[in-house]
């Protein structure tokens, strides 16, 4: 498989690349859905605030226009108005994350206004700060949740400082029994409790949001694997029948040509024609053999295999091939005593295909590194890394598809066979590539320690 410059990391099969915690973001339709839920929740909150204010006024037999009820009316109406503006601008706003950030920041200001109007330190609505932080984490990811918590703490702390030093006074607070209790100790205690609640909320919600992203990535990889397996199963059944139909006539054709070469009356110029026929027959036979290996690889005989020994044997075999092994240095960095449980022939075929691809991807004097280590009790990781040009991101999506190739010569079955053999033994494969930094194929294989792993086990490496 030829490599070309790539635009980023690509993971296929096996375990997906780990998402970076600093860039945990929702995207596309999912992000739009979350923004719509945020706006709907904001409208419901405004309705509940207005309804609760009216119920409180009726229960206390108060006038409609008395503080802080009047201010709460204004806040509820303002939230409705802003939400309508959000809805109007929603379809025209090109940067969805920025639009979500504006809304979350506005919610922090609204909550701060509600807290100020209802007693600030003694407000019954301080629980809205953690709710806004959770919304910020859902919309903007873990880092967005941290920023929301920081802005909320700064806004609330500033209001409390202004109240403590007498710059502002919440409506009706001077007549409240809490006015005489506003000491430095009380301010510090109540502010610290809210800050701690915000901190815990952002940490917990950030962790949950990150796990959600990881779960979605795992699910996407599994769905892609299921689709690939289903497609390969259909192609495999068709290929097996077709290959058998082709292979039998090939054998007859090759035998007939050999017999003709030995008959009398042979003309010298026939030698070249017969040589072409024999060569093309052998090439077609090799293609059919690869086709059969992809279509029906067979279970093989899983046994504990010493990885370093097989890798060294495969590298030695490659170096004897003048087409691949003479212009590239192959370095083996496999942990001593590392074992895997799979068919020996299958492992050799996997390593040989990956090494051939790697050597074809690098120029003269390039290098290929084969490394291996134990990831855990059940899983061993092998990687084949080259310093070629890398794989284009669009091409990487299809490199495990049957008959996909960018080479002038090639069947496009090499990596498909690798994927199929690994799938048969309960392993996996992923590829990562960066522009100008080559490509790395990472294999996840069942460990060879302990008893042999049954192919019927549901747990895959």
TrEMBL record:
It catalyses: ATP + protein L-histidine = ADP + protein N-phospho-L-histidine. Residues 1-25 are annotated as: Disordered. It comes from the Bacteria. Residues 241-449 form the Histidine kinase domain. Signal peptide: none annotated. Keywords: ATP-binding, Kinase, Membrane, Nucleotide-binding, Phosphoprotein, Transferase, Transmembrane, Transmembrane helix, Two-component regulatory system. It holds the Pfam family 6TM_PilS. It is an enzyme of class 2 (transferase). One of its GO terms (molecular function) is ATP binding. Its EC number is 2.7.13.3. The chain crosses the membrane at residues 35-56, 68-86, 147-167, 187-209. This is histidine kinase.
């Amino acid at each position: 498989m030829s490599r070309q410059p790539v635009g980023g990391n690509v993971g296929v099969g096996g375990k997906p690349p780990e998402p970076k915690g600093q860039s945990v973001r929702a995207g596309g339709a999912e992000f739009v859905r979350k923004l719509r839920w945020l706006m709907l929740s904001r409208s419901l909150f405004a309705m509940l605030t207005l309804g609760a204010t009216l119920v409180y006024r009726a229960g206390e037999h108060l006038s409609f226009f008395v503080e802080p009820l009047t201010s709460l009316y204004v806040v509820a109406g303002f939230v409705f108005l802003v939400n309508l503006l959000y809805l109007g601008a929603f379809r025209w706003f090109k940067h969805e994350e920025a639009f979500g950030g504006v809304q979350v920041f506005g919610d922090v200001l609204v909550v701060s206004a509600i807290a100020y109007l209802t007693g600030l330190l003694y407000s019954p609505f301080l629980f809205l700060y953690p709710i806004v932080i959770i919304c910020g984490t859902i919309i903007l990811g873990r880092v967005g949740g941290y920023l929301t918590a920081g802005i909320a703490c700064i806004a609330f702390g500033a209001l409390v400082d202004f109240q403590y030093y007498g710059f502002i006074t919440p409506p009706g607070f001077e007549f409240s029994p809490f006015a005489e209790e506003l000491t430095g100790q009380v301010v510090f205690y109540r502010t610290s409790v809210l800050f701690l609640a915000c901190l815990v909320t952002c940490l917990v919600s950030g962790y949950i949001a990150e796990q959600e992203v990881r779960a979605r990535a795992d699910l996407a990889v599994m769905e892609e694997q299921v689709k690939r397996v289903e497609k390969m199963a259909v192609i495999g059944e068709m290929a097996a029948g077709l290959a058998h139909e082709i292979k039998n006539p090939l054998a007859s054709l090759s035998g007939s040509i050999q017999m003709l070469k030995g008959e009398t009356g042979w003309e010298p110029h026939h030698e070249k024609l017969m040589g072409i026929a024999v060569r093309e027959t052998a090439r077609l036979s090799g293609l059919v053999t690869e086709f059969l290996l992809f279509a029906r690889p067979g279970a093989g005989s899983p046994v504990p295999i010493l990885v370093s020994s097989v890798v060294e044997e495969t590298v030695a075999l490659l170096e004897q091939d003048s087409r691949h092994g003479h212009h590239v240095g192959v370095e083996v960095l496999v942990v001593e005593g590392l074992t895997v449980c799979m068919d020996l022939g299958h492992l050799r075929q996997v390593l040989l295909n990956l090494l051939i691809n790697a050597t074809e991807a690098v120029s003269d004097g390039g290098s290929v590194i084969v490394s291996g280590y134990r990831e855990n009790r059940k899983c061993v990781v092998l990687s084949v890394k080259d310093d070629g040009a890398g794989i284009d991101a669009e091409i990487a999506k299809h490199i495990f598809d049957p008959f996909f190739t960018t080479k002038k010569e090639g069947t496009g079955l090499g990596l498909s066979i690798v994927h199929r053999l690994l799938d048969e033994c309960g392993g996996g494969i992923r590829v990562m590539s960066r522009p100008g930094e080559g490509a790395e194929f990472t294999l996840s294989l069942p460990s060879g320690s302990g008893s042999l792993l049954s192919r019927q086990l549901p747990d895959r490496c």
